[in-house]
Amino acid sequence: MAKEQDGSPKVRHPEFQRMRVTLTIGVIGLCVTAYILGAWQGTSNGISSPLISTRTQCKDPVRSSGARLDFQAHHQVGFNESALAVEKFPPCQLKYSEYTPCQDPRKARKFPKKMMQYRERHCPKKEDMLRCLIPAPPNYSNPFQWPKSRDYAWFNNIPHRELSIEKAVQNWIHVEGDLLRFPGGGTMFPHGADAYIDDINALVPLNEGNIRTALDTGCGVASWGAYLMNRNIITMSFAPRDSHEAQVQFALERGVPAMIGVMGTERIPYPARAFDMAHCSRCLIPWNKLDGVYLIEVDRVLRPGGYWILSGPPIHWKRHYQGWERTEGDLKQEQDEIEDLAKRLCWKKVVEKGDLAIWQKSINHVECVDSRKVYDAPQICKSNDVDSAWYKKMDTCISPLPDVKSEDEVAGGVLETWPKRAFAVPPRVIRGSVPGLTPEKFQEDNKVWSERVDHYKKLIPPLGKRRYRNVMDMNAGIGGFAAALMKYPLWVMNVVPSGLAHDTLGVIYERGFIGTYHDWCEAFSTYPRTYDLIHADKVFSSYQDRCDITYILLEMDRILRPEGTVIIRDNVEVLVKVQAITGGMRWKSQIMDHESGPFNTDKILVAVKTYWTGKLVQKQ
């Protein structure tokens, strides 16, 4: 028998030993059960009611499929609230309801008019940036769903009558009570864009899938791009914020891709060889002036074998010169100079019929290099920096094409027809133009984003329906998010942040999608309330050391429609900061688990912008 240190004997009975073993096993069992239960709760979506509410065109709040999204935190990371005090952002004055910070007409007059410099981007300094929420106009209503939105919009959303009067004969816009109706007319197609596109199709085949991406310079209300969607052609339309008030806003309100932009002194913000077709319908761009710099810029972004379509002055001048109030000699000279410049760019004139003239860019520069012995200008640029297009001055030399081995080879590679193009390995990937991006990694990226979008649909069921039309991806990578959404009736503005080590926007265009370069420390080139859904993958962790992320969130709020949705992917520390800021922006938000489960430090923040509008009684 053992003795204790005090010397007294103590007997250990078998019953006590069994009780201790049983108790130990019981405690271990409870711990394991609690751990499993906690993990199971953590993997839930955190949504008790699956849907984000919308408003009908009657302005009454209704639920799209039964219930509101529950944003009560079921799996939320705690933090010291005193360390992250919520700043409450007030509404801006109602006069800012259509504020475009980098294209502010009130400040444009300070800049030279030469080469449209005053219409280019001129962003406010940090001390002049608004720290308030841009209000929607009174009686704002959610836009109509596509495709009805192509033809109709609410007048209260864009209360402008100017174009309905100025362009009445050309059928741009009609005001009908509380509605705006868009008949599809344009300056050179008053009988409708559909008939105009039929005329183009008779000259250049548009329905075979070879033409997928198009560029419309000086787009008006973007009716050309709107009706091309019927032929599976997606158009990047741009126009300046000028005397034709809100023309780009009209396009986006209707669910048609567009940006504020101008042919000025800087390259348009798209990569080289991006578009299958470019178009100008009386866009008033002086193609034959300034050493041909604007047509040279179109050549840069036009794909080898791509088409340039021109209607309006000076085409068919013998018929229209009196209506254009110009002399025959002046118009003839302009057309002769455009024809000569096109030859110097190594373009071939395909046809001129009626009001249309069409040229085609050569598929490579084999003959073009030899022709420089004949033409003194423009020469082929010595620099291969052809994709750089963020605050980059235009060149008066021809952007070089990739080398080829024969006269019949398409420079840069042949693209698949649409829709195969979306998932075929792009030529830039095959050629190794993007360091580290291989065909295998391209395919893996498609798989990853397909799984992520499937997860998003569980969090936001309207994603697979007609709730969202205008979608923005703030850090688009190689376009995997857009590709995973292509079966739905929406379009994606794929943004590639400027200054990245590896430029991927060219890959996105080779997949048949559209996008632009942008620096998120500045405002985007669009009007307020133009996007239904904004997706941001690693945007804030990338920018938090470059600029105040509060202003990025305020910019997101500016371009997001009331009751629009935001999806932000990032590490949990960044998302906690973001959520603290959005708490003062009239957003409802919740941090949820990564699709791989609760143990991934990356999380997903889903937020909804609440409905509110400015008030007329507000002091102006």
Structural key phrases:
Rossmann fold, 620 residues, seven-stranded mixed beta sheet, 17 helices, 19 strands, disordered N terminus, 26% helix, alpha/beta
Description:
GO terms for molecular function: methyltransferase activity. InterPro entries: Put_SAM_MeTrfase (IPR004159), SAM-dependent_MTases_sf (IPR029063). It comes from Zea mays (Maize). Belongs to the methyltransferase superfamily. This is Methyltransferase. The protein has 620 residues and is of the alpha/beta class. It has a domain at 420-609: Rossmann fold (3-Layer(aba) Sandwich). 26% of the residues lie in helices and 17% in strands. The protein has 17 helices and 19 strands. The chain has a 7-stranded mixed sheet with strand order 8-7-6-9-10-12-11, sandwiched between helices. Strands 15-14-13-16-17-19-18 form a 7-stranded mixed sheet. Helix 6 (247-253) links the parallel strand 7 and strand 8 (258-260). The longest helix is centred in the N-terminal third of the chain and has 29 residues, at 14-42. The chain starts with 13 loop residues before the first helix and ends in an 11-residue tail after the last strand. The model is unreliable at 1-12, 39-67 and 70-83 (pLDDT under 50).
